[in-house]
Amino acid sequence: MIPRRAGPASAPSPVIRRWFDGRGPLCQSGLVRILHVSDCYLPRLGGIEVQVADLVRAQREAGHTVEVATATPGEPLPGVHRVVAPVPFELPVHPRGTAHLVRLIAARRPDVVHVHAGAVSPFAWMGVRAAVRTGVPAVATIHSMWDPVTRGIYRTLETLYGWRRWGLVLTAVSEAAARPIRRVAGPGVPVQVVSNGLDVAAWRPSAAAGPEEGVHLLAVGRLAPRKQPLRLLKLLEAVRQRVPAEIAMRATIVGDGPARGRMERHIRARRLDWVSLPGRFSREQIKEVLASADVFVAPAPRESFGLAALEARAAGVPVVARAQSGVADFVGPGKEGLLGRTFDDLVAAVARLARDADLRGSIKEHNRATEPVACSWPAVLAGFARCYELARG
């Protein structure tokens, strides 16, 4: 876990000082050459794609030489190598990806290969094998929560390929995501926790929004079955039944995806005319809607991190989420929001906040006065610097 800094005057660790002042073993200038490998990248706009693009930007701004290898087709971008094959539906895979990546690594000579993987990411793991073959230190960030099926797959891959002996350093985006990875990786493979990064100051509200009638509930995310969006609608309906009728309520669910049609039919059938589905929003639009939100709801039980919830917390909005999800890394119960382990727990938490304006106000004040330091880009860059150093060692 990235240590929280005591304040702006806190000194970096000796490892980080060596990394940035040029005395570290990877690069005498203190700047390193990094090759990120990800199945998916811009112009796709999923969670991993956006987070990797933001990390690339932050590392470049810090002075490092950063390139990307991806199997995602698209327009040319500076420093982005698209290893694309003609496959159906433009899937981000390549049947000879390892060989292509071996040649790319040999030509570009990075100091470290940083791989980004979801539950199962064939191209990303080809990047790991290419790094091992070329003798380049490799760090692999797992952006998803490993379920029992995924854990079984990686145990099988260990039997076939012995990946635990490759000298990898693994990172997870939260303690919740790290636990199942550690059970599979065993004691010989380091599994560090490095948070997703956020420009915290950019999400801080510029001014307090004027008072609005009623309570505004907000959720943001892809409307995909694994996110259980229909269960979110049932949660909102149950909350409405527990909140006195004299308290006006409205709910906004931002996002798009394959489950949207079923959600719209459910809203019509249940006459939930106070729930709106405005579609996908840009970051600026999300910041605007957060300014009017009273409670942010993140009910998915297998959320490895919860970037949208972090954005809401940075904007001051009280967050309600699962205690067993990655959101618990930056939301403490009663401080930044409320946590629950079950569906009924979440219903009770949202209803409590909807009824208690004082509690909402105190959490909002706390969130606006404090920053999630471990999720800021300086902390994230320092965390990955330690992982790069560990991979080298």
Automatic annotation (TrEMBL):
GO terms for molecular function: hexosyltransferase activity. The keyword Transcription regulation does not apply. GO terms for biological process: carbohydrate derivative biosynthetic process. Residues 46-200 form the Glycosyltransferase subfamily 4-like N-terminal domain. It holds the Pfam family Glyco_transf_4. Keywords: Glycosyltransferase, Transferase. Residues 212-368 form the Glycosyl transferase family domain. Gene3D superfamilies: Glycogen Phosphorylase B. This is Glycosyltransferase family 4 protein. It comes from Microbispora oryzae. The lineage of its organism: Bacteria, Bacillati, Actinomycetota, Actinomycetes, Streptosporangiales.
